[in-house]
Amino acid sequence: MTGIGPVEPVNSSDAQETYEVIGADTPRLTDRWQAAPPRVRRAVVGTAVLAATTAAVIALLPPEDSAPTSTLVPMPGPANVTTFRYTGLAATFDSTPASGLFRFAVTVHSGPPVTLRVTGAGAEGLTARISPAQNSAIDAGTTHRITVQISVADCARLPRDTRHPFLDVTLRNTRAIQRHRFNFGGAYPDDLSELLARACHPLPPRPSTRPQAEATGRADSQNMD
User: Fold this and answer.
1) Strands 126-130 and 177-183, how do they pair?
2) What 3-state DSSP class applies to 23?
3) What is the pTM of this model?
4) Binning pLDDT at 50, 70 and 90, where does residue 52 land?
């Protein structure tokens, strides 16, 4: 014998004993996938392809328009929103026959504030300015009353056969500077004619056409460079 013992019979009771398995692998996803029926795998693949296609289409769509913006309205020029109204003489011509004070109401209807400067009275022989000098801006929706001093500077340069119912102004707002000429009817031509007749006698008087105390000027304008 060489150190090998006798063979012992196996205890039949050991075959019934249970053993703890250490380190066994948990089921893998690929194992589950391989074990799934072909019909289930085809359905899963189809769902994944559909989801990917939908995502790609959504990514290629143009972005939705934001809320519609309001239409931009261009800012009006000062001549388009400003009106002059003649309201009468501020004083008689007795003390200064070559100069008169004429009152006007100036209204700005909309847009940014408007500043104005009176530059003339429609003829080279006349001068005109706001008296006293004012530089304040007129806000939209308000009426500003001004007094304009019109003076006869040179009788020889006044045309004798025409009327001069004009007032030349410069209007300014944040959009533009405009030269403007207002043409007045009503009482203004008669009051101006009286000034010219007193300052440049004999200036043929013109028949009176004074139908009302107030008149609103019509305007021609041009933009300044």
Assistant:
1) unpaired
2) coil
3) 0.60
4) confident
